[in-house]
């Protein structure tokens, strides 16, 4: 019999209570039904999903959530309910209330604005709003990579087709949610970014990529988000997988996907949430009762059942039967329970759950969020082409000329006041495709989008003082009414919405473009503007469309921003996502920026702000930037010459880029080079790099140039998880990237439970290796001679600095039986001044004590691995003696990190240090 965990509340010994916490349920209606109350009170359901069907307004939502939590509290739930929503912005917002809840661009629209910092701010604002209504879990961010971007149903809900860009924006959004105190849930694992609909009667999409292909692209953002340690939950999709190594009908029911891939390979320790098990394909093939058991067997902790009460009861019965049939053990149930309770502890409490601030907070923050919304939409609007210089229209059209607007009949986005007004009528005039039905299920009714575009027409008419023609078009193509209006108008605006999946829109647009071309040839003025209001891929590569604008969603807010662009109220600066951005030739990329010397008094604060922007927007290898400050780059060491450079806005004092360089004993080093994420791809990095190389190669006695520095140890080289992109960049900047030196930072996360590997001490004793610890420079001659012989000059200076800091640092020596030095390592206790220069040593929480084991210098011999393990062992013992909770080992060279894995160290970060001869940069400067 499984032993009950003493850390859990005794109430959980009742298995019915524990099982109830593993079910995640929704319902139809805007009020608490008797059935829902029964689920919470009698079946102890611990998590509720709110959708657009449940939510009428912010006030109603706050009142509804408070009622749900009160029911749970009075029923004896030890912890509050998880209350979750989909609030992705763009077209997917479960909660809409134009008086209090702000609309922001879709994920792809935010990426088009080009600022992960803006994405962070939007996510924080969104989470703050829903949190005010009592929500404590957002089902987001979307981490899917649109591997085949043109034809995928997720569309603008995803950031784009570049895995690193998806990582960057996904992590920025996740950090924004967390900053507002809301739990996060990445989706849709393992990927909805390249689905095939193979014509099955059950309409189940299939992933056909191999695991190797997934690992190189689709899994990258999931891996990076997990590595941050801040992702609370993962939504596991219901799609199938068919490739040579895996044949899975439903990903969320497969232990290959959840336990093997998500948990064992990617290292996810949070809550795994299944796709809704009410989907038709699963109900018909397996049945909900068996499916629920299979989901938990596979490794899911929360099983989602969206709305049908009888199906929900079937799922509860299924879990109980699973235990009775010994398919599910009590240990398995309690493993999930502990994960769920840990997540609840991180995002809610009874004090918070029973008293959501509601309208009082929302009314206070609404003006600020409205300004943010306008800024975000203005930043996202992208003019990909304007070859004929048609924009702005108020400068290229006479007031008496007629403007024609042609719009498709589509369903409006759930996040709009138009949708709210139409929802009551249940207008389901236009049937959705299989793609749309599957990916937008339970997100709102399918209805005509005439209202949204009618308002766009009114806005255009107001801007033109009444001079506008407007009609819609359908799959019936160009009709006589269209031909007559095209003949009248001097400028035609065609709106498309996912023309790659709604092919009638592509055909209609090409037909109109041909008509305009023929009429222009006969001497008539017939300007054509195509506006893609959803996927930017509609006509991105079709050069026959000379003026092409992308808005990334068609909420009213997006359409108002479009009108302001069309009539010149602001200059749009949005850019296309992912590979589309890279395929576009950007003239600005040749721009030369003014590079200035870094001034601490003038630039220190700007550098701190730049570092925080980078930390929030970066992949896991850069997360330590959140503990890095401007002071980390200034060594004030008489043996090291420092020259740091900035690109800045002299008016606002904002730093757009920073580069740190050092020179000692004939070696010039670039220790860091940063560019504001919103200012990338415009040559700021190249301008900084050029100035840095020129400065270093002009130093007298320069012998070698190095990329990456151990002291300060912010960047030891190129981060390995970014190595492909960055290596290409540095290679094009004059560096030889073929033979890098790998440097790895490692960590033991919990020293309280760590024990030395069995047999290690005996091996060290048999080899007659002895160790001692020294402090101060008086006894350090042999150590410094050893380091000078076997390490780089900056490592030598690091040792000198550590030996001078006698209270918190020392050096452990490994010696042979004849007292010759076999190796050395620096030991730091928590609070060492060295932590300012080695960010992994800086705690992210006040109660965190991190010990350091720095710069092991072990020459290559037959005993080298054993010497390194011995030095690490001595370091860990010293860290434990100083009450450290974690131990960071920075850095280990090349493959020597592998013997440390067996000691309980994990890889924290890996870098590739690169060196080059100065003469190789003659062309670069």
TrEMBL record:
The keyword Nucleus does not apply. Residues 18-342 form the Glycoside hydrolase family 3 N-terminal domain. Keywords: Glycoprotein, Glycosidase, Hydrolase. The keyword Hydrolase applies. It holds the Pfam family Glyco_hydro_3. It comes from the Eukaryota. One of its GO terms (biological process) is carbohydrate metabolic process. Belongs to the glycosyl hydrolase 3 family. GO terms for molecular function: hydrolase activity, hydrolyzing O-glycosyl compounds. This is Glycoside hydrolase family 3 protein.
């Amino acid at each position: 019999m499984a032993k009950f965990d003493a850390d859990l509340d005794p109430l959980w010994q009742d298995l019915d209570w524990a099982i109830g916490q593993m079910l995640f349920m929704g319902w139809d209606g805007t009020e608490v039904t008797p059935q829902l109350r029964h689920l919470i009170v009698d079946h102890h359901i611990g998590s509720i999903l709110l959708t657009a069907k449940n939510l009428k307004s912010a006030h109603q939502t706050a009142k509804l959530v408070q009622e749900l939590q009160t029911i749970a509290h009075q029923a004896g739930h030890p912890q509050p309910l998880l209350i979750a929503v989909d609030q992705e912005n763009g077209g997917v917002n479960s909660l809409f209330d134009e008086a209090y809840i702000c609309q922001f661009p879709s994920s792809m629209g935010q990426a088009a604005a080009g600022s992960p910092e803006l994405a962070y701010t939007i996510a924080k604002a969104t989470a703050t709003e829903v949190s005010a209504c009592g929500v404590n879990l957002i089902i987001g961010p979307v981490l899917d990579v649109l591997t085949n971007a043109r034809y995928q149903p997720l569309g603008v809900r995803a950031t784009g087709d570049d895995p690193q860009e998806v990582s960057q924006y996904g992590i920025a959004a996740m950090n924004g949610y967390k900053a507002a105190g809301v739990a996060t849930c990445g989706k849709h694992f393992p990927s909805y970014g390249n689905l095939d609909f193979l014509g099955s009667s059950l309409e189940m999409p299939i992933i056909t990529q191999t695991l190797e292909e997934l690992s190189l692209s689709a899994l990258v953002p999931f891996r990076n988000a997990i590595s941050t340690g801040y992702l609370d939950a993962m939504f596991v999709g219901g799609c199938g997988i068919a490739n040579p190594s895996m044949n899975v009908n439903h990903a969320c029911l497969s232990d290959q996907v959840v336990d093997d891939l998500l948990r064992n390979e990617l290292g996810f320790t949070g809550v795994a949430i299944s796709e809704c098990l009410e989907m038709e394909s699963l109900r018909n093939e397996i049945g909900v009762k068996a499916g629920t058991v299979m989901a938990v067997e596979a490794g899911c902790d929360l099983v989602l059942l969206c709305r049908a009460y009888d199906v929900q009861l079937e799922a509860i019965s299924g879990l109980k039967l699973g235990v009775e049939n010994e398919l599910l053990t009590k240990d398995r149930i309690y493993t999930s329970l502990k994960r769920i309770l840990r997540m609840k502890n991180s995002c809610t409490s009874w004090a918070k759950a029973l008293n959501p601030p509601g309208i009082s907070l929302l009314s206070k923050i609404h003006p600020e969020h409205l300004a943010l919304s306008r800024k975000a939409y203005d930043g996202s609007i992208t003019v990909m082409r304007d070859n004929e210089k048609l924009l702005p229209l108020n400068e290229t059209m006479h007031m008496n000329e007629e403007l024609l607007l042609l719009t498709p009949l589509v369903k409006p986005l759930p996040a709009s006041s138009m949708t709210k007004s139409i929802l009551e009528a249940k207008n389901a005039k236009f049937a959705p495709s299989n793609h749309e039905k599957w990916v937008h299920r339970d997100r709102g009714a399918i209805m005509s989008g005439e209202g949204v575009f009618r308002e766009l027409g009114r806005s255009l008419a107001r801007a033109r003082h009444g001079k506008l023609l407007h009609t819609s078009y359908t799959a019936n193509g160009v009709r006589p009414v269209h031909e007559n209006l095209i003949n009248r108008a001097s400028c035609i605006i065609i709106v498309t919405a996912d023309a790659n999946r709604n092919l009638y829109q592509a055909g209609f647009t090409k037909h109109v473009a041909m008509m305009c071309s023929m009429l222009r040839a006969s001497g008539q003025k017939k300007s054509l503007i195509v506006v893609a209001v959803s996927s930017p891929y509609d006509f991105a590569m079709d050069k026959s469309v000379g003026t092409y604008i992308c808005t990334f969603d068609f909420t009213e807010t997006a359409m108002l921003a479009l009108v302001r662009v069309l009539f010149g109220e602001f200059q749009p600066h949005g850019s296309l996502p992912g590979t589309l951005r890279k395929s576009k030739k950007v003239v600005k990329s040749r721009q030369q920026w003014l590079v200035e010397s870094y001034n601490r008094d003038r630039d220190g604060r700007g550098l701190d702000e730049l570092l925080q922007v980078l930390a929030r927007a970066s992949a896991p290898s850069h997360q330590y930037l959140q503990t890095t400050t401007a002071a980390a780059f200034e060594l004030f060491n008489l043996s090291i010459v420092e020259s740091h450079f900035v690109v800045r806005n002299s008016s606002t004092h904002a730093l757009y880029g920073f580069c740190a360089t050092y020179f000692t004993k004939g070696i010039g080093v670039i220790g860091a080079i940063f560019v504001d994420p919103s200012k990338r791809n415009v040559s700021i990095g190249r301008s900084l790099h050029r100035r840095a190389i020129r400065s270093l190669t002009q130093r007298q006695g320069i012998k070698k140039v190095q990329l990456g520095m151990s002291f300060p140890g912010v960047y030891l080289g190129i981060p390995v998880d970014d190595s492909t992109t960055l290596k290409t960049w540095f290679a094009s900047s004059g560096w030889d990237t073929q033979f890098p030196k790998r440097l790895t930072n490692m960590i033991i996360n919990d020293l309280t439970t760590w024990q030395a590997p069995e047999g290690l001490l005996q091996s060290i004793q048999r080899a007659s290796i002895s160790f001692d610890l020294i402090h101060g420079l008086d006894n350090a001659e042999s150590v410094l001679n050893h380091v000078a012989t076997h390490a780089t000059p900056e490592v030598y200076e690091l040792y000198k600095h550590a030996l001078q800091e006698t209270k918190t640092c020392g050096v452990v020596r490994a010696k042979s039986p004849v007292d010759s030095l076999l190796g050395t390592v620096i030991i730091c206790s928590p609070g060492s001044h060295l932590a300012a220069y080695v960010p992994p040593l800086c705690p992210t929480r006040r109660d965190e004590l991190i010990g350091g084991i720095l710069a092991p210098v072990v020459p290559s011999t037959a005993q080298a691995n054993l010497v390194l393990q011995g030095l690490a062992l001595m370091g860990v013992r010293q860290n434990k003696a100083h009450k450290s909770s974690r131990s960071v080992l920075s850095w280990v060279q090349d493959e020597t990190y592998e013997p440390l894995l067996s000691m309980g160290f994990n890889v924290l970060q890996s870098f590739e240090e690169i060196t080059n001869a100065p003469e190789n940069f003659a062309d670069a400067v």
